[in-house]
Amino acid sequence: MEASVLQGFLFVLDPVHFLFLFIGVAGGIIVGALPGLTGSVGIILLLPFLFYVDPATAMVMLCGEFCGAIYGGSISAILISTPGTPSAAATLLDGYPMSRQGKAGQAIGIATIASTTGGIISTFCLIFIAPQLAHFALKFGPDEYFALMVFGLTIIGSVSGKSLVKGLISGVFGLMIALVGLDPMTGNPRYSFDIPNLMIGFNLLPVLIGLFAISQVFVQIEEQAKGIRLPKQQITSFFPGFRQLLKLMKVIIPASFLGTAIGVIPGTGGAIASFMAYGEARRFSKDPDSFGKGNPAGVAAPEAANNGTTGGAMVPLLTLGIPGDVITAVMLGALLLIGVQPGPLLFKESPHIISAVFAGLLVANVLILVLGAFSVRLFPLVLRIPPAVLFPIILGLCFIGSFSLANSTWNMMIALIFGIIGYIMRKNGFPPAPVILGVILGPIAEDNLGRAIMSAYGDWTCLIQSPISLFFYAIAMISIVYSLKRR
Amino acid sequence: MAVSAVFFVGTWYFPHVGGHVSPRVFPRIIAGCMFFLAALLTGRSIVERLRTAPDKAPPSSLRKTIERWWRIVAVAIVGFAYTQVLDSLGYVLATAPFLAAMVLLFQEKRWYVVTAVSILGTGLFYGVFRMVFKVPLPRFDLF
To answer: What's the pLDDT at B96?
Structure first.
């Protein structure tokens, strides 16, 4: 274990790999901080570049982007009362009041230290839990994998937003998109309408770019027409005092473990973790009434928890190949695009990638602290990038990125079409995240279903014979009931 | 519901293959799920509409609605045009006007900002994709 993490550090600290990690973290902080861009959009904007680096470097860059984006969300939450990412929603409850009291720098300092601590604690948990779980998951057969994918698809319920039915429709729409192309068992074309480009199905990259990034540009142009303007903020100090920091550690450390534990559970994510940590911090506080009025613990707890989910969410992603939330769902798509199939075999066949991820996450969290400390005065400037400059560049990047996949304008067209579909979905309350789950998990589920039935000579009861399968069906049911009860 | 029906009917045209799992099975399950969910959503929408009183909020002005929508439609049309002319015009001649049009659609009226984003954006993508990643971007004969 120690040797593998050490190997990972040697890889990550290589100047070229470190540069990619740095770009990932800095890019993640920027997209996380900018309202209208989330961590998932940030990962999608990185995708066209990932094809040109080796898988381990790409993974390191993605980890940096993930951690950076989760942290970056707190900056706009504190400075302009607009969470850059959903997981920073709890941070603004006390972060923005601190900012209005002239303590914006201190609030960002607390958020930075809490995020770094949460991220490092969760990465250590990942290092200890993931190999054990992956070792166990190696025993899975196709029937158990099918059950696991069924469970993975129930995560749709938790990323569905307000309407579960609309979320499920989005997920099934994703499954339909995945059906276009060749049948995995027989190789027969399905829904390709004799169009040669459709014979291989939709490429994941333009679908992701369209649904998440281009549709966001459409949303932003509408917001522009409505005339939304961001307020301005000034930053003076950064680090809190040593005594205050020690006091806050009593909140940060438990919140980090809470965030990690919640992150491990697929379908939860940073938003739930941060609100739970905020609630617990308030419950155990000697002065609960000060929460919501600029209590530093109200910034520290959610930030430690939401960055705590980063390592936690990587556990099911890396060991079982199922995403924990929206960002890890997009990350799963990104990994498949660069030829990395997450799952237990990854630990066996590509241990260098796993060790790079472990070390990459640790270094990324330290980089958050360093970047936070040195660039705190630049954050208000980042928030003032005019949308008229930012979004045309993003749209251009989306199109050229789609083109670069196969040097063909077909993928640009697909990205545009899915951008329009994504925009229509968003406007009508259909979340785009479940589409991605359907597109990614659907083919894996179908492939394993076919293999399971074939290996059982057509006996469909094989799907419910294994205790592991039954376990996954049971937690899938619990996940559905939980999603229903939460509403 | 129409989409699920089309998907279901589409499975009839898949070749019948012997064996334990036909290529028709999974698409039919998915089409069935979509039909059920769409029917559920339709039913719920009808019930909700019957329960709630008609919306008395004043309708947004036609001018504002058109102003909001024409930008979105224009972005889609300019994007579509860009995908169509990229191969024939080449990267530089297609991308610079595309970016300029996008900046204008985002209501930026200062000519120097429009020009700067158009030229710098085109140069930036060219530098990253063509020079660093060696992506063969489409070329016009003169470029």
So the answer is: 93
A416 to B80: CB separation less than 8 angstroms, yes or no? yes
Q: Where are the alpha helices (DSSP H) in A321-343?
A: 326-337
Q: Do B83 and A412 touch (CB under 8 A)?
A: yes
Q: Which of A51, A185, A226 sits opposite B23 (nearest CB)?
A: A185
Test B87 with A172 for CB contact under 8 angstroms: no
B6 Cα to chain A: minimum distance (Å): 10
pLDDT digits (tens, 9 = 90+) for A142-186: 888 888 888 878 777 766 667 888 888 988 898 888 888 887 777
Are residues B70 and B95 located together in one domain of the fold?
yes
Number of independent structural domains in chain A: 1
- Residue in A closest to B78 by C-alpha: A416
Cβ distance of B108 and A388 shorter than 8 Å:
yes
- Low-confidence residues in chain B, pLDDT < 50: 143
Bridge partner residues of A181 (DSSP): A190
Answer yes or no: do B66 and B127 share one domain: yes
Cα(B5)–Cα(B35) distance, rounded to whole angstroms?
Answer: 7
Q: Mean per-residue pLDDT for A111-137?
A: 88
Facing B79 at nearest CB: one of A173, A416, A442: A416
In this structure, chain B runs to a length of 143
Pick the residue from chain B with its C-alpha nearest to A460.
B20
Interchain CB distance below 8 Å, B79 and A395? yes
Query: Does A104 score more than 50 pLDDT?
Result: yes
Question: Does residue B142 lie in a domain region?
Answer: no
Token pair recorded at residue A384: 């003032």
- CA distances (Å), origin B1, targets A154, B4, B5, B7, B51: 22, 5, 6, 10, 23
φ, ψ dihedrals at A473, nearest 5°: -65, -40
Q: How far apart are CA A252 and CA A84, in angstroms?
A: 21
Nearest beta carbon to residue B41 from set A169, A222, A388:
A169
Closest CA to A303 of A244, A246, A369: A369
**A235 falls in which pLDDT band (50, 70, 90)?**
low
> Which of B28, B51, B74 is the endpoint of a domain?
B51
List the domain range (segments joined by +) for residue A455. 2-486
- The residue range of the domain holding B10 is 2-51
Rounded to a whole number of angstroms, the distance from the CA of A70 to the nearest CA of chain B is: 26
Q: Which of A222, A409, A449 sits opposite B26 (nearest CB)?
A: A449
Check CB contact of A338 with chain B, cutoff 8 Å.
no
- Mean pLDDT, residues A448-468 taken together: 81
Q: pTM here? A: 0.78
Whether B143 is in a domain gets the answer no
Taking 50 as the threshold, does the pLDDT of residue A418 lie above it?
yes
Number of domains in chain B: 2
